[in-house]
Amino acid sequence: MSQNATMNESVKNATTTPLLQAQDVRKSFGATEVISGIDLEVNQGETVVILGPSGSGKSTFLRCINLLEDLNGGRVLVDGADVGFEVRNGRLHELAENKIAQRRADIGMVFQQFNLFAHMTVLQNIIEAPVGVKREPRQEAIAHAKELLARVDLNGREGAYPRELSGGQQQRVAIARALAMRPKLMLFDEPTSALDPELVGEVLATMRSLASEGLTMVVVTHEISFAREAADRVVFMDGGVVIEEGPPEQVLGDPREDRTRSFLSRFL
Ligand code: ADP
Ligand code: MG
């Protein structure tokens, strides 16, 4: 029964289902609603940049996408599969935590604080989850890790410890670590905000090349130039809602909404 459901889903997905579908997502902390009905669709291979003032709910929204937060409303589907629920006997059931964890493995996340394991080498950091969680054969995981290190421009650094690397290098290892799980979707939450200014460029360059290789990415950042160059679409949010979205040249160059205009004027 559930096998049939999976087959039907994958047949459907082969057509045009967006990779990410967030539908009317709502999140409250106590009596305060901080995400007030956000819809966002991201197609396979697209890079979407989310901009917005501090406190507008950007991090919370990303955390809702991979269900690090319990939603107060709405749904999130990745590749057509609901991250938190499944249909059984025609009814919606909340998934058990272990199944949510499986679905969540489709989504990689990179944070402002990269939090590498300090006592592990770069290689051990990268293969930890694929070997420990996904039970990938160790030799396969190592070969993949080396490929990923080349992609983030850290060829040959697998034996280094985090303390031997700059912040920019550590963040690129964190990106490789997330990619090691072969996620369908990558979320970035202000990945360069904790870095010294001179290290920001190398991390953005890595992200730009991942975007051009066709990785599907949702990126929260204040780096307007990254949004202009790498985004297929820019979303501006404020007060827990999407104020406007569109191609970067439109949202950044000719915003429709006053709130977007006034936010962007801070970066001039
Ligand atoms: P942004 O990432 O855009 O700066 P956040 O998503 O971090 O915004 O926060 C949005 C709002 O939600 C803020 O008012 C913040 O104080 C509040 N908030 C975030 N996380 C929590 C939490 N765990 N408990 C209570 N309030 C929270
Ligand atoms: Mg934030």
TrEMBL record:
<dbReference type="InterPro" id="IPR003439">
    <property type="entry name" value="ABC_transporter-like_ATP-bd"/>
</dbReference>
<dbReference type="Pfam" id="PF00005">
    <property type="entry name" value="ABC_tran"/>
</dbReference>
<protein>
    <recommendedName>
        <fullName>ABC-type polar-amino-acid transporter</fullName>
        <ecNumber>7.4.2.1</ecNumber>
    </recommendedName>
</protein>
<dbReference type="GO" id="GO:0016887">
    <property type="term" value="F:ATP hydrolysis activity"/>
</dbReference>
<dbReference type="GO" id="GO:0015426">
    <property type="term" value="F:ATPase-coupled polar amino acid-transporter activity"/>
</dbReference>
<keyword id="KW-0067">ATP-binding</keyword>
<dbReference type="InterPro" id="IPR050086">
    <property type="entry name" value="MetN_ABC_transporter-like"/>
</dbReference>
<dbReference type="InterPro" id="IPR030679">
    <property type="entry name" value="ABC_ATPase_HisP-typ"/>
</dbReference>
<keyword id="KW-1003">Cell membrane</keyword>
<dbReference type="InterPro" id="IPR027417">
    <property type="entry name" value="P-loop_NTPase"/>
</dbReference>
<dbReference type="GO" id="GO:0005524">
    <property type="term" value="F:ATP binding"/>
</dbReference>
<dbReference type="InterPro" id="IPR003593">
    <property type="entry name" value="AAA+_ATPase"/>
</dbReference>
<keyword id="KW-0813">Transport</keyword>
<dbReference type="GO" id="GO:0005886">
    <property type="term" value="C:plasma membrane"/>
</dbReference>
<keyword id="KW-0547">Nucleotide-binding</keyword>
<keyword id="KW-0472">Membrane</keyword>
<dbReference type="InterPro" id="IPR017871">
    <property type="entry name" value="ABC_transporter-like_CS"/>
</dbReference>
<feature type="domain" description="ABC transporter">
    <location>
        <begin position="20"/>
        <end position="264"/>
    </location>
</feature>
<keyword id="KW-0378">Hydrolase</keyword>
